[in-house]
């Protein structure tokens, strides 16, 4: 965890940015909520609990900056808002998301399982695959009944 903060600090410095208190708190909230796919508004609510003076615009701007630096990436689960997730893949492909159409729960699948398909595409289309963004829609264990 501290390593990640250190590497973020370095990345920010390289681009001429500082890890200000506000940025640090926003990062902390994202770190504390890994796997939760928070929307900017949800992040704002949590950040405000630690830093009441912060404005929503600052949170939006910071998220945009983190996205540009590839620290987080934006997800869209077709529920009308964008969500953010920490970019923990060091060159690995993104994990998949299962989205429940009934309760809206998002479940992560950490296994890639697409190697055969990727190989086939790379061969037949002469296309180099570097990542993918896969969503499965359906019903979770609780809603399936
Ligand atoms: Zn995820
Ligand atoms: Zn893959
Ligand atoms: Zn469900």
TrEMBL record:
Summarize where Fe cation binds, as residue positions. 115, 132
Q: How is the cofactor bound?
A: Binds 1 Mn(2+) or Fe(2+) ion per subunit.
GO biological process, alphabetically ordered: negative regulation of DNA-templated transcription; regulation of secondary metabolite biosynthetic process
Task: Provide the alphabetized UniProt keywords.
Answer: DNA-binding, Iron, Metal-binding, Repressor, Transcription, Transcription regulation, Zinc
One Pfam annotation reads: FUR
Needed cofactors = Mn(2+); Fe(2+); Zn(2+)
Q: Which family does it belong to?
A: Belongs to the Fur family.
GO molecular function (one): zinc ion binding
What is the source species?
Caloranaerobacter azorensis H53214
Instruction: Please give the InterPro entries that the UniProt record associates with this protein.
Output: FUR, Fur_C, WH-like_DNA-bd_sf, WH_DNA-bd_sf
Question: Does DNA-binding show up as a keyword for this record?
Answer: yes
Question: What SUPFAM superfamilies does UniProt report for this protein, alphabetically?
Answer: Winged helix' DNA-binding domain
Q: Does the keyword Transferase apply?
A: no
Q: Which PANTHER family is this protein grouped with?
A: FERRIC UPTAKE REGULATION PROTEIN, ZINC UPTAKE REGULATION PROTEIN
Q: Which domain of life is it from?
A: Bacteria
What is the protein name given in its UniProt record? Fur family transcriptional regulator
Which residues hold Zn(2+)? 100, 103, 140, 143
């Amino acid at each position: 965890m501290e390593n990640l903060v250190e590497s973020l600090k370095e990345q920010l410095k390289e681009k001429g940015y500082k890890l200000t208190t506000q940025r640090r708190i926003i990062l902390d909230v994202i770190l504390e909520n890994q796997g939760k796919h928070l929307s900017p508004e949800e992040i704002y609510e949590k950040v405000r609990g630690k830093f009441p003076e912060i404005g929503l615009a600052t949170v939006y701007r910071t998220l945009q900056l983190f996205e540009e630096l590839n620290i987080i990436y934006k997800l869209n689960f077709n529920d009308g808002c964008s969500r953010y997730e920490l970019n923990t893949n060091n060159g690995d492909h993104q994990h998949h998301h299962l989205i429940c159409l009934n309760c809206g729960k998002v479940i992560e699948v950490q296994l890639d399982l697409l190697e055969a398909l990727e190989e086939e595409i790379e061969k037949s289309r002469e296309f180099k695959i570097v990542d993918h963004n896969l969503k499965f829609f359906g019903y979770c264990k609780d809603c399936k009944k």
